[in-house]
Amino acid sequence: MATGFQTVITTSKTASTPTLCRQLDELQRISGEYRREQLGEDWFRDVRDFFSLNTMQATAPSFRPRVLVPELQMQMLAEAGDVTDNTPVIYITNRDTGRDKNREQAMRGSWRQGQYNLQLFMAQLWANLGGTGFVMVGFEPWARGGRGEVWLRVVDPGNCYPDPAANCDDEWEFFGLVERKYLDWVRSRFPEQGYTIQARPITRTPATSDTLMGQPFGPMQMSGGGLPETIAGASDGMVAFRRFWVNDTTVERVKDLAGNSAGRELDIAPAKFHKMFPNGRLVMDADSQHVIYDGDNYVPHGKFPFIRFMGMPSLEGIWGVPPIRYTRSLQDLAERMYTQLFENAIRLNNGWILIPNSTGVDADKFGGLPGEITVYDAQQGHKPEVVWPKEMPAHMAQLPQLLLEEQRRLQGHTEARQGNPGAGNVSEDLYEAAVGQASKITKIRGRFFAGSVQRVAEQVFYCMARFLRNPLQFPPGEAGSEELSEWKPIDAESLYWDVWLDEGSIQPMSQQMLRKTAIALKQAGLYDIESTLEALGIPNAKEISEKVTQQLSLEALANVKSPGRKQR
Predict the structure, then answer these.
(1) Model pTM?
(2) Domain positions in the chain
């Protein structure tokens, strides 16, 4: 056992497979218990059910159909769209040669081709709903006809097990990801160790067609609850594929203590030890029984391939505060009241038919159906009468809407943000100022989003530098350009490359407002034609700009040759 963090996990040269798997189990247990303390039991499954409007959660029969109002879900969806609406502008610099525009364009082209913005949107959506979202950076060697591709994808936070002692991404001592994978998937990527895992038969007993949970289908069917034991304990033929990144600082003795000839000439003392895992340690196993890989981390500079996204500031620990917790109780109460209003309107507001005894109408034969003919004794002066209950107060129907409006206010989705700054004539400047002031919470989330995108850009660039070892062409990096960008291999371990994110490029600003700003800058003379067309997303912006510039030049030349000609 080594010192420091190695009191938890031993090195691959001394640990057996069962011991190493047990140590990973311990790391997973520590992280899982801390997550349950912060968020509760099975929090992210509850988030998935909440967002997907999964109503199969009742544990008792009910005649009241639940009325769902996905107000909060739509707000979080719109919020994620506002925060991730712009494409980040990334700069790549070298300490010796300066800015590298060619690799910038290649990286932007890879960004567009890999749909990175969509993955960032999904991660921010997870953060808005569950408090924390994660994206993972990796490399697929078989993509693009065997040329390889650096990918970015969102991962389920419920499958992530970060270091509970860390307060930010740079302090992680370990990070685990547990996913269920098909055995063929594992064997295709790890053929040597994957075939040591025994395949398990898929055994699943289907539910019968006329019963569920002991109740026949109908109005009294009980929904929710657990599945029958024959289904819950069935095997789906998949394995629990687990990956743990560990900041393993274990060192080993250097075999050649003499050093090289240059070191001897300069009287430099040779190193006696070096790191066993220079970039950190990566351990993969399946079903906590089979170690598939145990070696160096594939991400350069010792970074873990996970980037965290937050919906609200985290005062302590990795897991952020879920934004939906602040107002979810208001929406639940509004839904309950809408359900009660529905029941009052349908079941309790039925009229009563009163039949006096003197009418001679047989109550057993009277059906009360529309258009029914009923004979009664008119001489007695009495006839059947329909009595209705009193109308419900108007404020009872308005109360759920008031609760939802309060939720919108607390979440920052006010009337001003929706385009209604107030009564009276409002100038364009005041209108935009009112909308901007109403988006303070979105701007706060934009700051955290910018920090996460900075980390994404760094890891994507260094993974491209390490794995893309041949010149590759990517689609245009700009929306209005047609020129292909080319990636040229570089040394991934070099410390002379820096990646910078223009934070202003991803500030929460809608594309429509960005286009209006571009037009205003062009009218003020601060934008040229090409930059304005690129901001508007017009295809072939460069060619159009050249043609317009040429046309303006010809017109200016014609005006010079013909001074008396009327100016346009």
Answers:
(1) 0.75
(2) 328-423, 510-568
